[in-house]
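Regression test case RT-17, inverse folding.

Input:
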């Protein structure tokens, strides 16, 4: 996928506008997916396991939980892209992120293991998207009760991560206990 037009408004739920807007106009979303691991590792790779248990406010996820959320979301959205790219027209169920996080066991894992899983998932996502024929990007399916295209999912993924990287930079890292 070279520089790619944004998905049309009817190709995704408007809820995802924020994420899609975080992919620069005319940019290849796969390039952003390729670049994000370096940024993520630079932001959190130096943290201790104790620091990665930090949450910036009561009831908010820890850094580890946020990272596992990024991984879980990427897996689910890549799975959706695979099914839709292959012409599967079965409606795909949504997922409730607030149910996933508490049962993820993120806080019992090492930061190193989470980052290794992140790298593995990202490599698989990139490999999947690079395998798609150009026509696959415009295939439509249904996820969480809304139409969605493979192209939209390609934009949502890096936008979702960019959103969380922003939160890490703005709310978590400046407030880490010394």
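Golden output:
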């Amino acid at each position: 996928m070279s520089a790619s037009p944004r998905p049309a408004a009817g190709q995704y739920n408007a809820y995802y506008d924020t994420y899609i807007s975080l992919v620069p106009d005319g940019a290849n979303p796969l390039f952003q997916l390729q670049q994000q691991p370096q940024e993520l590792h630079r932001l959190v790779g130096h943290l201790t396991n104790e620091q990665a248990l930090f949450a910036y406010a009561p009831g908010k996820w820890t850094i580890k939980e946020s990272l596992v959320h990024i991984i879980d979301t990427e897996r689910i959205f890549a799975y959706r892209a695979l099914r839709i790219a292959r012409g599967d027209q079965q409606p795909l169920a949504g997922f409730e992120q607030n149910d996933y996080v508490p049962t993820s066991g993120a806080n019992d894992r090492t930061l190193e293991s989470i980052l290794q899983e992140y790298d593995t998932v990202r490599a698989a996502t990139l490999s999947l998207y690079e395998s798609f024929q150009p026509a696959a990007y415009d295939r439509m399916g249904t996820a969480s009760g809304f139409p969605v295209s493979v192209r939209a999912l390609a934009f949502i993924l890096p936008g979702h991560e960019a959103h969380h990287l922003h939160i890490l930079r703005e709310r978590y890292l400046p407030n880490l206990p010394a």
